[in-house]
Amino acid sequence: MSRRLMLFVFVLCCSGILTRVDAQQISETYRKVNPSVVIVRVQQKTPSSDPQKGLVGLPSFGSGVLISAEGKILTAAHVVQAADQICVEFFNGQIIPAHVIATSTSADVALVQLERVPTNAVVSAIGDSNKVDVGDQIFIIGSPYGLSHSLTVGHVSARYAPNSLVTLPGAAELLQTDAAINSGNSGSPMFSMKGEVIGVVINILSRSGGSEGLGFAVTSKAARQVLLEQKSFWFGLDGILIEGDVAKALNLPQPAGIAVQHVSEGSPAWRQGVRAGSLRTSVDGEDLLLGGDVLLEINGIPVTGAEGAVDQIYASLSKLKAGEKLRSKVLRAGQVIELTTIILAQ
Questions:
Q1: Is residue 32 pLDDT above 90, yes or no?
Q2: Per-residue model confidence (pLDDT) at position 314
Q3: Measured between alpha carbons, how far is 19 from 87 in angstroms, rounded to an integer?
Q4: Contacts from 14-20 at CB under 8 Å and sequence distance 24+?
Q5: CB-CB contact of 320 with 343 (8 Å)
Q6: One-character DSSP codes across 251-315
Q7: What span, in angstroms and rounded, lies between the C-alpha atoms of 227 and 13?
Q8: Are 32 and 71 in contact (CB under 8 A)?
């Protein structure tokens, strides 16, 4: 056998060994962290397409990961933001009720608190995403299409600074990945090869909605900052910003407002008495519910269409302490009224 041929065979053998080593490492790390990954099951009441049926339950789900022994689950904000009920399902089949304690809609991450922590629960550590480089191998565990604890493997394809991608939440640093992501992966943890959480899956850019698109995760550093290092606030409503001609057509007394689409039971917005819309319609090709309140002012800050206006409102809400009043002004049936509630201790 020629020396060149022997060298070629040697390289092929070494490549095979490296591939098996990588696969073994992923398999071992997967088994270690997999029990910390959960399915986040959500129930939301929404108006039926048949007005005679009133409100109907709309189930949905996402993924999450247990990050503390006290029962805190890290997930995506859009999974739980408008939830009426939340249950978290663990690897062993245990299902435990939970509630939202903090969200950042601009970063699309949220913290959910379990009502109780399972015995021998496995907690995953939050890693330092600053140490992650483009090209590093990563893996994701989640529930695509409801298939729980599915593993996909890939690499960090790119890193994006805040406000650099107009089609995705702009207030947080993002990691792009080629690991397969599908419906149900929202909130899935992105793990480093050390088994540390370095990101939270929030979105996929895809023409079909399938995994041939580009997957994105909020970095663990950004999630830690907005949810753990800073005080965050969960208002408990889903709304659509309306302005321009639509605001004029609805006779808003100001240039912009938030048409309330859903109010989560037990949330501060719910305790205030904010009312969600119930009449389904389409405006400029966008489906929305009308007939409910339009938020004009929250905590003394007017709703505007200016960039960063919503972030300013949430920053103000985050400063509220237990026992203080939360005030909102809404347009209801043509009248501007003020709603108040007392902030409760978490």
A1: yes
A2: 81
A3: 39
A4: none
A5: yes
A6: T-SSSEEEEEEEE-TTSHHHHHT-----EEEEETTEEEEESS-EEEEETTEE--SSTTHHHHHHH
A7: 47
A8: no
Rounded-to-integer distance, Cα 62 and Cα 146, Å: 8
285-289 average pLDDT score:
81
Amino acid symbol at 239: G
CB-based contact 113:99 (threshold 8 Å): yes
Residue 320's closest CA among 294, 345, 338, 295?
345
**Beta bridge mates, 111:** 74, 102
**How far is Cα 158 from Cα 169, in angstroms, rounded to an integer?**
16
Q: In 3-state terms, what secondary structure has residue 286?
A: strand
Residues 6 or more apart in contact with residue 35 via CB below 8 angstroms: 90, 91, 92, 121, 122
Beta bridge partners of 87: 41, 97
Domains of the chain: 1-232 (2.40.10.120), 237-342 (2.30.42.10)
Q: Active-site residue numbers?
A: 78, 108, 186
Instruction: Tell me how far apart the terminal alpha carbons of the chain are, to the nearest angstrom.
Output: 74
Q: Chain-centre distance of CA 34, in angstroms?
A: 20
- What the block records as the tokens of 78 is 């859009």
Q: How far apart are CA 283 and CA 243, in angstroms?
A: 12
Average of per-residue pLDDT values in the chain: 86
In this structure, the chain runs to a length of: 346
Structure tokens at 150: 């599915």
Of 183, 200, 122, the C-alpha closest to 147 is 183
Cβ atoms of residues 103 and 234 within 8 Å: yes
Rounded CA gap, 254 and 247, in Å?
8
d(CA 22, CA 20): 5
Please say if the pLDDT value at position 153 is more than 50. Answer: yes
- Those residues whose C-beta lies under 8 Å from the C-beta of residue 215, and which sit 6 or more positions away, are 140, 154, 176, 177, 178, 179, 180, 181, 185, 201, 203, 204
Q: What angle do CA 184, 307, 339 make, to 5 degrees?
A: 80
User: Are 210 and 182 within 8 A, CB to CB?
Assistant: yes
Q: Which residues contact 291 (CB under 8 A, 6 or more apart)?
A: 277, 278, 279
Indicate the SS3 state at residue 116.
coil
Whether the per-residue pLDDT at 103 is higher than 70: the answer is yes
The pTM score is 0.82
